[in-house]
């Protein structure tokens, strides 16, 4: 990388990193405490209570692993843009519904053919979400997945960090932003088992889903986003009843 400081630097804010760090530490301390409680209850001969606590801990440990993965991603993800090259720090867990190879090192703008992005719809446990995934198309025909912007809970808005970095990278490289067709993935069970995301298409292009299927997906996403609003409204109505 050049010795000159980067002109643009994209990373999660300190508040976001501290927030996820605090949440991760608190969650794991809680689970460790519950595991200790399970052992203590078991030593007292309370088999049923120990079994319930043990099953609860076993269920939440994988979920806590997802939170830990997200914490490591937010502390590690960074895109720095210099005069003639970018420096990428892209952790393994930067995509929610599927692994992406970790990458850390310089990338010359001259090696970039295009910056691409697409929406990826994922269905899990009756709910549908759409993430916006961004990638670098290399002149060598390879693809580097930059990261994704995710829906902000209880709103119709998205995070913007990955998209901002991708657009700035496109400007630096003098390439356009190419939108690919919407793709479908599988969220599996709580993203723990069976989750998969669609492969990034080759240079020849991607298959496009039908307009009817896309409308159905977006309708399902809208319902998913509105569920908290509906639930809040129902609770308020119940509280207003005499």
What this model shows, in words?
With 242 residues, the protein is an alpha+beta fold. The protein has two domains: 66 residues; 105 residues, no CATH class. The chain has four helices and nine strands. Strands 5, 6, 7, 8 and 9 form a five-stranded mixed β-sheet that branches. A four-stranded antiparallel β-sheet has the order 1-2-3-4. A hairpin with a 4-residue loop joins β6 and β7. α1 runs antiparallel to α2. The longest helix has 30 residues. The chain starts with 7 loop residues before the first strand and ends with a helix. Keywords: Membrane, Transmembrane, Transmembrane helix.
Lay out the secondary structure.
Elements: E1 8-11, H1 14-43, H2 47-76, E2 78-81, E3 85-90, E4 103-108, E5 112-124, E6 127-138, E7 143-149, H3 161-173, E8 177-179, E9 183-186, H4 211-240
Parallel strand pairs: 5-8, 5-9
Antiparallel strand pairs: 1-2, 2-3, 3-4, 5-6, 6-7
Helix pairs in contact: 1-2
